[in-house]
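user: can you give me the structure for this one chain? tokens are fine.
assistant: on it. calling the predictor now.
[tool input]
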Amino acid sequence: DVVISVAANTAADADGDGNLASNTLTVNYTTSGPTILLADDFNDNVRDAAKWNIGAVFAQIESGAAGFDSTIPVVERNQRVEVQPRASITGDHYAGYVTAAALDFTDATAGVRVQQTASGDADTYLAVAKDPQNFLLMVVEGGGLYLDQTVGGIRQISGYAYNAAQQQYWRIRHTSGSPARVVFETSADGN
């Protein structure tokens, strides 16, 4: 079973322009496939505690328990999730939505529409994680899109230039079989 997380590593005024609003991460989340395990369009502007906790999977992977920063505002508003960077903070500080329960990711898909990524050195990510040694990660940082498949602590990372218009929908898909496959996908329209 895995936990799905949509979140950001939010550094203070990551782009240095003095405008924290421009650093807000906004996401919409859906799961598709033969059986929908979890879906949320965030249209009620209230976090559904049965589906989501505030936390950060990637914090455990990169920084341990100290990486999660409960003071980072993570709110559901404007029919989306928004993560607001804190001012005057350096180092790793992560927060976002994490599934309230572990899910079986066999033959499953996790996807998110990223309307705006964090800027500067701050990260915007979608993660599917069993534990800090076994996870799948899509992350944008500094204009690059990085795909990370880590199994048994061995990381395989690929990097590409990020195009916000052409890659606003992110999806991580698992297919069983021989061999089992993990597919990272992006698109402009969710297809």
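assistant: here you go. The mean pLDDT is 77. The two ends are 26 Å apart (CA to CA).
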